[in-house]
Design a protein that fits this description.
Chain A is an all-alpha fold. Chain A has helices spanning 2-30, 33-37, 44-53, 60-72, 86-121, 126-140, 143-157, 182-215, 218-225, 230-267, 273-282, 286-314, 316-319, and strands at 170-172, 175-177. Chain A has a two-stranded antiparallel ribbon with strand order 1-2. In chain A, helix 7 crosses helix 10 (230-267). The radius of gyration of chain A is 24 Å and the shape is globular. Chain C is 72% helix and 1% strand. Chain C is built from eleven helices and two strands; from the N terminus they run H-H-H-E-E-H-H-H-H-H-H-H-H. Chain C has helices spanning 7-17, 19-36, 38-41, 82-118, 120-134, 138-149, 153-180, 183-190, 195-231, 243-254, 260-287, and strands spanning 63-64, 70-71. Chain C has a two-stranded antiparallel sheet with strand order 1-2. In chain C, strand 1 (63-64) and strand 2 form a beta hairpin. The longest helix of chain C is centred in the middle third of the chain and has 37 residues, at 82-118. Classes of the chains: A mainly alpha (324), B alpha/beta (327), C mainly alpha (293). The A-C interface holds A 15, 18-19, 26-27, 30-31, 136-137, 139-145, 148-149, 151-152, 156, 163, 212-213, 216, 252, 255-256, 258-260, 262-263, 266, 277-278, 281-282, 289, 293, 296, 300, 304 and C 132, 135-137, 139-140, 143-144, 147-148, 220, 224, 227-228, 231-234, 244, 247, 251, 254-255, 257, 259, 262-263, 266, 269-270, 273-274, 276-278, 281, 290-291.
């Protein structure tokens, strides 16, 4: 068990190292690195100074180590636009994004797995067919357009919910959160639905496919032959067996939802990291782009690592270190 | 002979697929006495497994029992509701499967899985349930059973897993256990152990066994009577000894002749010409006729099953007819 | 029942049973035709400035403009007939989707089969990269690449390909690897047949069914991704307005109730994507042997 954790941790560090090389190459080597750190209107003197200070006159591998050194010290440069350290800027925006993403993914998973199991268990019923039709829609309709329609319907026409912003926030552990206040909650409903819809469709499909396959296995036949009721089979056997793919996808989706938040935050003017990165791309605020990439890569690796740990906790085969 | 514990009459289970109706089981009748072991023999696709599933009411869509009667302890099973049928599965009749790796849930401990099977029919406390589970595991030959309740399936070998499955099937002392090739996936040395243990357990508990196998040699060492299936039908049935010594159906005779033990060393093995027919495009009449050297024009009609004493066969031109006349 | 049951005919017979899928297929074909003949079926050439009048801008559906004909779906902020703009937008969206889909298919399949066929270090290198990339959301990758490369049709297709080739590589690799392990391929490799022949004769055909499924889904995804990027202002230049850009153009006017500028191009986009996905779903179900009975 401990060996497994250490092994996975080393893997995570390895992936992070690879990601840093890719980001380094992508941003420092492809683009002109100077453009990344100083504004285009800077004088030649400042340029020369920056080149020397950043060691851009040194060989590439040395530059990489300087980049890593800065990275490890948390120095990712300053935003051109806001003129504050990038890390601070992103750190301030992160809670809003995390709040939105977590609420969306968790509700999409709970609802999606329930509906998906039903659709997989009774694939020929009209309820299952309705669920699948909705999931095809949720899967197909681009999320930005759903956001548009949500605003048009609930904010413009009906006037029930606000169309943008974060609303009132409450400070917990030194961070602002929207969900504890009624006003904040009303602001989060539409973006959360918007962000959750795709995940919901995904979870429905996954749970349905898993259920259909598991219900055909000998494990289920054997349980039925032993006289277990269908309810017990679903609750004790199916739910356990289906949890592994669900948790994998939950982790992956947590990451991809973070990415899709870019779209939702733009539509609903949600002041999170996603909106920040779009604004930064528009004004070519490159240090923010670099930092965002590193951050997302870091979150991905962390999530995957945590998922591996969860696996070790729930799957006895992994826990006991058995080879598949 | 005592009253049969299981009595099957003219069972027909058909699958309604896109490509047409597959008559997987199409005329199966037999009786099973308490504690008796019957071997159900046939090639893959002959309908043995579907027969087994039909007995437990576990035929998957798009299949269903279209005709026939299954009486277990005098109760007709084919007309029972799902709930009533479930109450009998595992308690009065249970089943074990070919691949023990696939049957047990890898995510639950042996103890949890046995508890679920107990709870399905009885309210027992945790302690009593553990005691029952331990007793059964010990009975099927699992050492230090009490400690093994907390183990997961992957911590057992294939043979041990199959023993666990057998213990689960035996939990409620059912009248009948359907064993679907339970030793095929195991090592040869383990096969024999499990085989004889099953025979002893059946004798001890008075449980009747239906042993499904494609291997005539394995079954004949175990079963007191045999039923040979071909294309969804039982083509011949009777006591093991007489059926082996004196087969009536040409298919049975062919199977016997192709057994390695039957041929002198060095001599080529006998073969049945042709291949198993697809159940989708069965010719009318006797399904074995195209492969049979005794077939005549008469075989264009389907032969009914003929009973003589404790034997029965579906053939117009049975092998060894002369002997039968004198009997 | 037909006497000659070729695989293709059987496939079609099964496909035909799902009426929804058949309807979806008809819709897809129809939309491709509309896109192809956009210049013929459109009442107006929306990009011929001579036809446009600012007097006609942001008019609701049913408005009779200075051109003398009815704008069935209204007009956009530049005074273009929305229906015509949608037909032309459809053309660009489909074009981008197909181009990105086919390039991804080619690159991904080549890499996947190469990895499965060659094995060893190259296999490990390619598949590690593919897996790493698959764990990364496509939209983010596309976003970053567009931000790095700048705007334009080629850049956009490049970004979409970079975001999607990995799916094809994974699929082709999976299918080819399973086939590669079989004895007959080993035998074929051992005979002095050329490697190319083994790949073409044996590996590629076995990868085809799953690749068709992935291709359908990914073309729909490309179209959707392109629309999303265009909506975020990172897609095509203004001179080539896809459906996504039409929607984006209308967004600011939505709050004042001029919904049609965004909504109708969106409806067209969704009909297209949903129809492709329904067809893809049916094809997938038919190819999945585990769900077959």
């Amino acid at each position: 068990m401990l060996g497994f954790i250490i092994q996975r941790f080393l893997q995570a560090v390895g992936v992070m190292a690879v990601m840093s090389v890719i980001v380094f190459c992508g941003v420092y080597a492809i683009g002109n690195p100077i453009d990344i750190v100083i504004p285009p209107e800077a004088t030649a003197e400042i340029r020369q100074d920056a080149i020397r200070r950043l060691g851009l006159d040194r060989p590439l591998y040395e530059q990489y180590f300087i980049f890593i050194g800065n990275l490890l010290q948390g120095d990712l440069g300053r935003s051109f636009v806001y003129n504050i350290p990038v890390l601070e800027l992103i750190g301030g925006r992160l809670p809003a994004t995390l709040e939105l993403v977590l609420i969306s993914v968790i509700s999409a998973t709970v609802l999606g797995v329930t509906l998906g199991i039903y659709a997989g268990y009774r694939p020929d019923s009209w309820v299952a067919k309705t669920i699948m039709a909705v999931s095809v829609l949720g899967f197909s309709v681009p999320s930005f357009w759903v956001g548009l329609i949500l605003i048009l319907t609930f904010a413009v026409n009906l006037g029930w919910l606000p169309a943008g912003g974060r609303g009132d926030t409450v400070e917990i552990w030194g961070v602002d959160w929207s969900f504890p206040t009624v006003n904040g909650l009303s602001h989060i409903v539409l973006p959360a639905i918007n962000l959750a819809l795709f995940k919901l469709a995904m979870m429905i499909r996954l749970a349905r496919a898993g259920t259909r396959e598991i219900m055909l296995t000998d494990t289920i036949k054997f349980a039925r032959a032993a006289g277990l009721s269908e309810g017990t089979i679903l609750r004790r056997h199916l739910l356990k067996l289906i949890s592994i793919p669900i948790i994998t996808v939950f982790g992956l989706e947590l990451g991809s939802t973070l990415a899709f938040a870019v779209v939702t935050e733009t539509i609903f003017s949600w002041p999170g990291v996603g909106k920040l990165i779009i604004d930064s791309i528009a004004v070519l605020d490159r240090p923010v782009m670099v930092a965002y990439l590193i951050l997302v890569a870091f979150l991905f690796v962390t999530i995957n690592f945590v998922i591996d740990l969860v696996f070790a906790l729930i799957d006895p085969r992994v826990r006991h270190g058995a080879s598949s | 002979m005592s009253a049969p514990v299981l009595s099957v009459r003219d069972l027909r289970t058909h699958f309604f697929t896109r490509a047409g109706v597959v008559k997987a089981v199409d005329g199966v009748s037999f009786d099973l006495a308490p504690g008796e072991i019957m071997g159900l023999v046939g090639e893959s696709g002959s309908g043995k497994t579907v027969t087994g599933f039909s007995l437990l009411g576990l035929v998957d869509e798009p299949g269903r029992i279209v005709e026939g009667s299954i009486k277990l302890n005098g109760t007709e099973l084919t007309t029972l509701s799902d709930v009533e049928l479930r109450a009998r599965r595992g308690r009065d009749i249970s089943m074990i499967f070919q691949d023990p790796i696939a049957t047990l849930n890898p995510m639950l401990t042996i103890g949890q899985q046995m508890k679920l099977a107990i709870d399905a029919h009885e309210r027992l406390g945790k302690r009593a349930a553990d005691a029952r589970a331990t007793e059964l595991l010990t009975q099927v030959g699992i050492p230090s059973a009490a400690a093994r309740l907390r183990a997961y399936p992957h911590e057992f070998s294939g043979g041990m897993r199959q023993r666990v499955a057998i213990a689960i099937a035996l939990l409620h002392r059912p009248a009948v256990i359907v064993a679907d090739e339970p030793t095929t996936a195991l090592d040869v040395s383990i096969q024999a152990q499990i085989l004889y243990q099953m025979r002893d357990l059946a004798a001890e508990t008075g449980t009747a066994l239906i042993w499904i196998s494609h291997d005539l040699a394995v079954v004949s060492s175990l079963a007191s009577k045999l039923a040979v299936m071909y294309a969804g039908r039982i083509v011949e049935q009777g006591p093991t000894a007489t059926l082996l010594r004196d087969p009536r159906h040409p298919y049975t005779a062919g199977l016997l002749a192709s057994l390695p033990a039957m041929a002198p060393p060095g001599a080529p093995l006998a073969q049945i010409p042709g291949t198993t027919p697809s159940l989708l495009s069965l010719p009318p009449g006797c399904p074995f006729a195209p492969r049979c050297d005794r077939a005549t024009a008469e075989c264009a009609a389907e032969p009914e099953i003929t009973f003589r004493g404790d034997r029965g066969w579906r053939c117009f031109h049975p092998v060894g007819q002369a002997e039968e006349v004198t009997a | 029942m037909s006497g000659q049951s070729t695989p293709l005919r059987l496939f079609w017979a099964e496909f035909r049973e799902n009426k929804v899928a058949v309807f979806a297929l008809v819709v897809v074909v129809l939309m491709i035709l509309l896109a192809l003949f956009a210049s013929v079926v459109s009442p107006q050439n929306p990009y011929d400035l001579a036809n446009l009048s600012l007097m006609d801008s942001r008019r609701p559906p049913g408005f009779v403009g200075s051109g003398g004909y009815t704008h069935i779906l209204g007009t956009d902020p530049q005074g273009r007939d929305l229906l015509s703009a949608i037909f032309y937008g459809l053309r660009i969206s489909i074009q981008i989707g197909l181009a990105a889909g086919f390039v991804s298919l080619t690159i991904g399949t080549t890499l996947g089969i190469l990895a499965a066929y060659v094995g060893g270090r190259i296999e490990a290198l390619i598949m590690r990269l593919v897996d790493l990339q698959l764990s990364f959301p496509a939209i983010l990758l596309a976003l970053v690449i567009v931000a790095l490369l700048g705007q334009g049709k080629a850049q956009l297709i490049g970004a979409l390909v970079a975001a999607q080739y990995a799916y094809f590589a994974r699929t082709a690799y999976g299918a080819a690897k399973a086939e590669r392990g079989k004895d007959y391929i080993e035998a074929a490799v051992a005979t002095p047949l050329s490697a190319r022949l083994v790949v073409l004769r044996h590996l590629l055909p076995n990868c085809t069914p799953p690749l068709i499924v992935v291709a359908t889904v990914q073309i729909a995804n490309s179209i959707s991704l392109e629309a999303t990027l265009s909506f975020l202002g990172l897609g095509l230049p203004v001179t080539e307005p896809s459906l996504g850009m039409l929607i984006s153009n209308g967004f600011p006017y939505m709050m004042s109730g001029r919904y049609w500028i965004s909504v109708y191009p969106g409806v067209a986009l969704i009909i297209l994507i949903v129809a492709i996905n329904i067809v893809g779903d049916q094809v997938r179900d038919q190819f999945n042997p585990r769900l077959r009975r």
